[in-house]
């Protein structure tokens, strides 16, 4: 018998060996394994070549395990159970089980966009749980760096060390107002309209609010600020109750709109980027990638690109 100085054992052959050992017969082992007898014999011969010693003594009408076979059988005890456990672990990893997907998103996205994306996502990874919380970009960044969440969904942010920022959607800012408001009769709202009508504006302390304020300053305009809304979703209720115009974004308006409130595009105001924030250098989880795909699909369904006529 040729001895292999560097055996590379095949787990399947070890299982065949154990079945032969337990049945004391190659024919019986073949029946249990639902394999052809010559195939079982060939695997046994290869295994003996790999380990470098005989496993069975061939006697007339029967086989007997060698001393080495008894040792090998004892050493491989529990092999089947361990393989089953490993296979179950592989199935769990493939399905994303074991650890929930932890998401923190801007509150404005949690009314419709994120739930719709999670519904699509769960069809891809049905055995995985997700946890959803809302938070500002600064809260998301802190939670990501602390390892408390897997992904954040926020508005435009500057590149930061240790973070991977993926643009997902150009989110338009809109003017929301009661349908009876004077400006509701216009098809578009200008920056100058905010200087002539009381309005609710985003907080200058927030990234969006800072950008809006800078836009008015560059235009040489001073809006008639009636109140400040730190969260875009609050602006719609304020506009309704105060009978004024408010700046919010298209994602919020779509989720909270009703027959009493209308929106109009704002001329001259920049769009904001909706982004996914992750920790740079972390191994990519399939469940996270699947969520990003579902999020993008939801955005495309909610805001389809206009078809250009030829």
Automatic annotation (TrEMBL):
Instruction: Report domain HTH lysR-type positions.
Output: 9-66
Gene Ontology CC terms, in alphabetical order: protein-DNA complex
List the Gene3D superfamilies.
3.40.190.290, Winged helix-like DNA-binding domain superfamily/Winged helix DNA-binding domain (1.10.10.10)
Q: Which PROSITE patterns match?
A: HTH_LYSR
Q: Which InterPro entries match?
A: LysR_HTH_N, LysR_subst-bd, WH-like_DNA-bd_sf, WH_DNA-bd_sf
Report the Pfam families cross-referenced here.
Answer: HTH_1, LysR_substrate
Q: Does the keyword Transmembrane apply?
A: no
* A GO term for molecular function: DNA-binding transcription factor activity
Q: Which UniProt keywords apply?
A: DNA-binding, Transcription, Transcription regulation
Asked if the keyword Lyase belongs to this entry, the reply reads no
- Similarity-based family: Belongs to the LysR transcriptional regulatory family.
- What is the protein name stated in its UniProt record? LysR family transcriptional regulator
Question: What is the species of this protein?
Answer: Alloyangia sp. H15
Task: Please spell out the taxonomic lineage of the organism that makes this protein.
Answer: Bacteria, Pseudomonadati, Pseudomonadota, Alphaproteobacteria, Rhodobacterales
């Amino acid at each position: 018998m040729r001895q292999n100085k560097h055996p590379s054992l095949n787990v399947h052959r070890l299982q065949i060996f154990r079945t032969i050992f337990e049945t004391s017969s190659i024919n019986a082992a073949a029946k249990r394994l639902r394999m052809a007898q010559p195939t079982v014999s060939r695997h046994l011969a290869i295994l003996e070549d790999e380990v470098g010693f005989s496993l069975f003594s061939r006697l007339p009408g029967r086989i007997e395990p060698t001393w080495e076979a008894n040792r090998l059988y004892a050493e491989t005890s529990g092999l089947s159970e361990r393989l089953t456990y490993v296979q179950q672990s592989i199935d769990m990893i493939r399905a994303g089980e074991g650890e929930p997907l932890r998401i923190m998103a801007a509150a404005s996205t949690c009314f419709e966009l994120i739930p719709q994306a999670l519904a699509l996502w769960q069809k891809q990874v049905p055995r995985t749980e997700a946890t959803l919380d809302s938070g500002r970009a600064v809260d998301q960044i802190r939670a990501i760096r602390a390892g408390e969440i897997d992904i954040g969904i926020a508005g435009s942010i500057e590149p930061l060390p240790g973070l991977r920022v993926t643009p997902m959607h150009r989110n338009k800012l809109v003017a929301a107002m009661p349908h009876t408001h004077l400006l509701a009769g216009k098809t578009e709202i200008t920056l100058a309209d905010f200087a002539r009508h009381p309005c609710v504006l985003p907080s200058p302390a927030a990234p969006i609010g800072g950008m809006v304020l800078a836009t008015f300053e560059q235009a040489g305009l001073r809006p008639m600020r009636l109140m400040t809304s730190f969260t875009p979703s609050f602006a719609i209720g304020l506009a309704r109750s105060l009978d004024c115009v408010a700046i919010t974004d298209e994602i919020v308006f779509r989720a909270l709109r009703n027959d009493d409130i209308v929106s109009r595009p704002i001329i001259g105001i920049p769009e904001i980027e909706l982004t996914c924030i992750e920790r740079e250098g972390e191994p990519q989880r399939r469940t996270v990638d699947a969520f990003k795909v579902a999020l993008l699909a939801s955005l495309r369904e909610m805001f389809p690109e206009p078809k250009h006529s030829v």
